[in-house]
Each structure stands twice: as structure tokens, then as C-alpha cells.
Amino acid sequence: MNFHLRKPRTFKLLLTITTSIVIVFIVNQVQAESLKIGEIYSSLDKKQVIEVISENELEMKKKEDIYLVNYNFKNGKVRIVYTESGTKKVAYYEIVTEGLRDRNGVILFSKTARLKAKATQLKALESTIYYDKKMGLEWLAGPDKPTNWYDAKKWVLSLYDFAGGGWRMPTMEELKTLWQKGKKCNIKPFLITTGCWVWSEETKGSSLAWGYDYHYTHGSTYLSGGSGDSSGPSSLNRDKSADSTRGFAVRFHK
After folding, report:
1. Fewer beta carbons under 10 A from the terminal one: N or C of the chain?
2. What is the pLDDT of residues 1-20, one digit of tens each?
């Protein structure tokens, strides 16, 4: 009589599960030890940009400086060594869902995550549109930070297709319609801003631009910057900004 020994099914199942775990572990290790070639990671303000050139090489931009560097992984983080102003520096980036995160918590978004983040920002911005029914105008307050005339114009131009488009810089007459008695700034509270001086589209000569100041009881016009006498012009250029200067966008109601 012949006997045939059969391997227990439990052993075969255990072998399959163990093999699968090993394969998944290896794949995950490979994914964790490389970045996608051609991917571009950037902060929302574009001051930090990293482009993956190869499996171990990056092009890194910090402000106005560009570095071509090698990278590797240490403790699961991207490790970059570079030289800045003659000093050797090491930067670490943690891989997160959105892209890469530096030691200060600043996220450099991947292309896909960046598009999602921008869409979220635009949706939030759309909710801040102020409709002045009396004047038939729609308004948007720009970034709440010191802004020169050129940056204000650049921001308005970036809205070319936002919420139906049609955005432009306001005229002085349009800015006057926003005057409303307030505590700090005499400006309608529907426009959220800590600045009390807003650029217009109107320029003078090759370097000056008009703006409207909401600090004063009756409002007053200035040439750029708003320095000098409260009822007269200033000689500051369009590329100057002060703590209170802001850019607004306006369009006729859609």
C-alpha cells in the first residue's frame, strides 16, 4: 500500500501571506526611497520650488537662488545637502500626502495637490465677493499685506477667469463709493482688510499712481504711497508700498 504525504493547507496559506507581506514591504521601500522624476514641488508663494531631475538629483530654488543637488533618504525623510553663500547646509523634507514638508512646517505641494489647494483657495475667495447693488459693482479685496501698484495690478490680472472674469483695478470715482464711517478705516466692512489705502488704476507720468485713503473723515486722494500732506499728492513711485497700501479688484455685476 502506497502512502502520499500532503502538505498542510495551513502551511501553504501561511507561505502565501508571508510572501505577499515581503513583496509589499519591498515595494513600499522602493517607493519611499525615490521621488517621481519630473515632479515639481512648490510652496504656495513659489519661494521654494523643488524639481526632481533623476532618481538622486534635484533642482532646488530658494527665493532667487537655484541649486542643482543630490538627494538621498535618511530615516524616511528626503535629505538634501547644498552650499549657500559658502556655508554647507542640510535640509530635510518629510513626505506627506500633499507633497513635501520642511522642518518649519511649510508644505511644498505636488502638482496635483497644488491644483486642489488652489481650487480651495479660489472657492474661499469667491465667497468674499462684495456686491454693491446701488452702484452695480462687485468687489474683491486683495492680499492683506503691504502692496505696491505693480503687485496690485499683477494680482488683479491673475483673476482674469475667476468667477466669470471681468476683473480690473478700480477708478478713483469707484473707490470713493466704498467710503463708510468706521473705527480705523472708513471703508465698507464687507471688504476684509487691515489696510486703509487702496490703489486705483489711474497713473500719472511714468512712475506715479493715484490711490484712495480711507483713514480720514472725508477720504483724500494721494499720488502713490500716501505720504506727505493728507490733502495733497505724494512723489512716491508705483513700486513703493507702505503698511496700509492694498490692491482691490472690481467689475460690473454679472
Report:
1. N
2. 554 445 455 544 444 444 44
* Whole-number Å distance between alpha carbons of 179 and 14: 76
* pLDDT, tens digit (0-9, with 9 covering 90-100), for 208-229: 898 888 877 655 555 544 443 4
Residue 20 located in a structural domain: no
Q: Residue 37 and residue 43: Cα distance in Å, rounded?
A: 18
- Gap between the Cα atoms of 34 and 143, Å rounded: 37
Looking at the structure, tell me whether residues 158 and 112 fall in a common domain.
no
Question: In this structure, are residues 37 and 53 in contact, taking their beta carbons and an 8 Å threshold?
Answer: yes
Rounded Cα distance, 62 and 71, in Å: 16
What's the rounded Cα separation, in Å, for the pair 185 and 188? 9
Which residues are bridge partners to 49 per DSSP?
Answer: 42, 61
Asked if residue 131 is part of any domain, the answer here is: yes
Residue-range definition of the domain harbouring residue 169 = 125-252
The CB-based long-range contact list for 215-223 (8 Å cut-off, 24+ gap) reads 215/185, 215/186, 215/244, 216/186, 217/186, 218/179, 219/176, 219/179, 219/186, 221/172, 222/197
What is the pLDDT confidence band of residue 59, given thresholds at 50, 70 and 90?
very high
Give the strand pairing for 137-141 and 248-252: antiparallel
